[in-house]
């Protein structure tokens, strides 16, 4: 069975067939999914999905692009939601400098990244990290928050193998999805070749980043089979081994063993 560790099924892209698609996942080989919040509204919608489907769980947090909406009241509210039994992580949180080039905005991202890391530490929750064009600052903020004392996955890992080694010092996990199958995904394949299988999680980030041959279309957990095949080929193991190892990894990371 496949464990999709990072999905956004509350996205509007699934409004027409969400119920049908989610209901079909177990019979088609997808045994568990974690729906990841990106803003305060999706904290509520992610929890609602997790309550409805026994094999769905929720990660709750605010993406770097949305941190300007956070207030003291928001943090109290978020902490209450994280006490829900199906809230398994804080995320996705982190830094994104791809769109935001201005230092004041980046500083605000760092401030709320640090604060959400501290929230996760206080609640003893793992963290789902979004890091784009911000590897050095991501490492610095996480080092200040405890580095190896954090349980973290670098979602949609997109940096070099050298950067992967820095995160591996802290035994972090790496989210691997459709980009592994892209023709221009050489950098990721080089990094994944060096990352131990015991540190890899399968993820879709759906509805985004569909693997080949579905690139450009709406992604979903059913397409992870192709990512598992690509990972098996890269690692020289069977597809079944990929599914078994990444399932165990995800269960361990999210505390679902």
* Tally of helical segments: 9
Beta-strand proportion: 15-25%
Question: Which whole number gives the mean pLDDT?
Answer: 97
What is the spatial order of strands in the main beta sheet?
Answer: 1-2-3-4-5-6-7-8
Helix percent reads 40-55%
What are the low-pLDDT stretches, counting only 5+ consecutive residues below 50?
none
Q: How many strand elements?
A: 8
User: How would you name the oligomeric state of the polypeptide chains in this document?
Assistant: single chain
Query: What's the shape?
Result: globular
| Radius of gyration, in angstroms, nearest whole number | 17 Å
Supply the helix-strand structural class: alpha/beta
Alpha-carbon distance between the termini?
A: 15 Å
Main sheet characteristics? 8 strands, parallel
Spell the H/E element sequence. Answer: EHEHEHEHEHEHEHEHH
Q: What can you see in these coordinates?
A:
The chain is of the alpha/beta class. The chain is 41% helix and 17% strand. It contains 9 helices and 8 strands. The chain has helices at 18-24, 40-52, 72-81, 103-123, 135-144, 161-168, 186-194, 224-235, 239-253, and strands at 2-7, 30-36, 56-59, 87-96, 127-132, 152-154, 173-176, 200-202. An 8-stranded parallel beta sheet has the order 1-2-3-4-5-6-7-8. The radius of gyration is 17 Å and the shape is globular.
């Amino acid at each position: 069975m496949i464990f999709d560790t990072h999905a956004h099924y509350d996205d509007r892209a699934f409004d027409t067939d969400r119920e049908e698609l989610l209901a079909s996942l177990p019979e088609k080989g997808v045994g568990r999914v974690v729906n990841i919040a990106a803003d305060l509204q999706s904290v509520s919608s992610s929890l609602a999905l997790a309550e409805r489907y026994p094999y769905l769980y929720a990660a709750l947090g605010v993406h770097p692009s949305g941190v300007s909406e956070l207030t003291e009241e928001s943090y109290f509210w978020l902490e209450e939601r994280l006490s829900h039994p199906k809230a398994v992580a804080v995320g996705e949180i982190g830094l994104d400098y791809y769109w935001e080039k201005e230092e004041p905005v980046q500083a605000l991202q760092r401030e709320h990244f640090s604060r959400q890391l501290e929230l996760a530490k206080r609640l003893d929750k793992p963290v789902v990290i979004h890091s784009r064009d911000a590897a050095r600052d991501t490492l610095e903020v996480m080092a200040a928050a405890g580095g190896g004392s954090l349980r973290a996955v670098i979602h949609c890992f997109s940096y070099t193998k050298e950067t992967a080694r820095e995160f591996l010092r802290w035994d972090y996990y790496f989210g691997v999805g459709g980009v592994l199958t892209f023709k221009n995904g050489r950098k990721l394949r080089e990094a994944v070749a060096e990352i131990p299988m015991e540190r890899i999680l399968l993820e879709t980030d759906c509805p985004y980043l569909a693997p080949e041959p579905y690139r450009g279309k709406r992604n979903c957990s059913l397409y992870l089979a192709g990512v598992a095949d690509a990972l098996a080929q890269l690692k020289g193991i069977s597809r079944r081994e990929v599914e078994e190892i990444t399932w165990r990894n995800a269960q361990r990371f999210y505390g679902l063993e």
